[in-house]
Write a structure and sequence with these properties.
heterodimer; A: mainly alpha; MetI-like fold; 2 domains; B: mainly alpha; about 75% helix; about 0% strand
Chain lengths: ~300, ~280
Amino acid sequence: MTSIARDLPAAPRVDREAVAARQARARRRMLGRGLLYAAAVLLALWVLFPIYLITITAFSPRDAVYDYPKQLIPGTLSAETMRFFVDAEGVLGALWNSVLVAVVTLIFSTLIGAPAGYALARFAFRGRDAFRLIVLSTRAFPIVILSIPLAVSFIEWGIYDTIWSVALMHTALALPFTVLITSSIFISVPRDLEEAALTLGCTPATAFVKVVLPLALPGLAAASIFTFVLSWNEVFAAVILTLRERTLPALVLAALNQSPVPFRLAAGWFMLAPSLIFIFVIRRYLLGLWGRVSR
Amino acid sequence: MKGQRLGWAPYALLLPSLVFLAVFFAAPMVQAFGLAFQNDAGNWSLESWRTMFADAQFREALVTTLILIVILIPVQFVLAMAMALVINARLKWSGLWLYIYAIPLGISELAAGIIWFAIFTQQGWLNSILEGLGILDRPYIFLNYQNPAWLISAVVLAEAWRATSIIMIILVAGLQGIPRDFFEAADVFGATSWQKVRRVILPMLRPSVQVALILRTILAFQAFAVVIALAGGGLTVLSSEAYRWYSDYRDSHVAAAYAGFILMLSVVSTILFLWLLPVREEQQG
């Protein structure tokens, strides 16, 4: 239609107006795009600039941490401050505890939660919606309210102040997410493939191991990384449930207001760094993981 | 079908998580109730609640927590919406933008608090930059115990910086669920960008907005490490009072009363959001 109208020689004025209008619209769209890019860059700076600042401070020599005014382009970079932090008493042990707790949490929550996720994804059964609702509603309960009675129980059971108590608590926090996330991952594995395997003589178990698992593996890995990060970052429960066997955040928090500034800043960078990598690894799954969970 | 052949299978698969949630979620919840409403002798009493309400820090903690939430939630919502719209505009390198905006998702409250401490502390970056620009002639003490306005602002900035990504992700996931036709229809009718946001995006996004606001508010009631990292003892919130009563005074009863109070506020705010932003039946994902 429009192309015919443009080719008609009888209406040159309309033509010129139309061209002008189209140009104006194109200019507006260019301007709009330009503004969008500007917004994108500004928002990215808002996220990245503080990370840049803590990084150059954490990697300046120990005395330079107190330098003032600070230079946005650092003069010397050094691992001295970081080494001071890592060598400080208790840090390596706490680091090791953090890793152990996160790994145990990851194993527990996957072993316990993934079967439930699979059941939600593949079976229509009575009580399915009720179970989903229970799992969803657990998110409304604050960590604070779980930690305090659990601390009392753990003392009675004799596992207070061990990595197990923290890992169990973190599993309780992570489990609802694991169930919902794994269920959305298993839903995305085509059911036909599994049924084909069953028709070809696989038992449900072998069909799961040989067909479903390999397809679900990347998603499951992303979900596990998410669980790891959740545990690595959690501090309230960790600081309530431990005294000597601190995880890294619990150790840093408990010592925070008595510790020298270089220690704090290095600790901040140290706790932040893994998330840069983890989020990068699972970036393509983020929307899937969170988008589904939020429904 | 399979459901008939293996009728017990789904229940067997659910059993471990149900047992686990019963032991480590339901039981502690009941115990917390018991702790909060019993005294040391094990008798039912409102003693811990009275102690909590009468405590000098309680009012301050409550007010600070509420101020934080009232400022934080709108700020974060606008920021997250801006990020989500930028992602949804499908610019070049859209994966990169999403990654950058999502980075704080993996950063803990404590780490975020420390990062912003590096900015706000007396020999920190904000003073360096302001002095470099000639706005200040000597460093200003932002994180001063006598200056709660700056302490709260620092906490708000740190939390807005850290916890906006979770809202952003939920909004982006919601935006992707809006059919492209809707935007094309809006274009055909000559809608401006602002009209598109107002008339198409916000109404369609309501379920995601509701979830994001509820989730974020519940988490904001638990803000803890970020306050300690930035304000030390200069500012107190409800969670840090629970922590103080548990670890400094060794009184798990009053600590549980605080926890119960936080839970109550979370439930009230959830109901409030459900009521303020009703989601129609057909909009439910």
